[in-house]
Amino acid sequence: xxxxxxxxxxxxxxxxxxxxxxxxxxxxxxxxxxxxxxxxxxxxxxxxxxxxxxxxxxxxxxxxxxxxxxxxxxxxxxxxxxxxxxxxxxxxxxxxxxxxxxxxxxxxxxxxxxxxxxxxxxxxxxxxxxxxxxxxxxxxxxxxxxxxxxxxxxxxxxxxxxxxxxxxxxxxxxxxxxxxxxxxxxxxxxxxxxxx
Length: 196
Hints:
The chain has one helix spanning 175-195, and strands at residues 7-11, 21-25, 29-35, 41-48, 50-51, 59-68, 73-77, 83-86, 98-100, 105-107, 112-119, 125-126, 132-133, 136-142, 149-152, 157-158, 164-165, 167-173. The protein is mainly beta.
């Protein structure tokens, strides 16, 4: 049996030059929405324009969240954290790209989700004025607004904003869905052969 081909659920990486960035820290999280089509999927790969200009160290997380009722805001985390990385391993240049592969998160059909970036143990950065600045990362944003973007500092989600965060979300059809489709094709082929 051939493996199912990947499906792109969201992709705005070619939307032109970034117009600013949202800060991601231990206390500020950023969420960008994406949706499935009329079949079940397994989330396989994501790419984010997430980078680290300020020499922040420590860990950050990428999570999948569901949508809260009809409000459309992020609701709660789906399953466990899908990726934990170190800030010092991110690109330090504008438009740096984080690539995460080998994921396997089940996504329901016709459902909206959020990809959430949040700091976990990002370390504060010394400043020239002998105090500390909060450690944070940058997630590039575009003025092209096709879906919902939210951010929170722990007191509720703010948004939707007028910008989308740059990302690409790829998935493969869930095996049972793919098996049913393949089975239907095989059955139709068999019927045609019997008629011939």
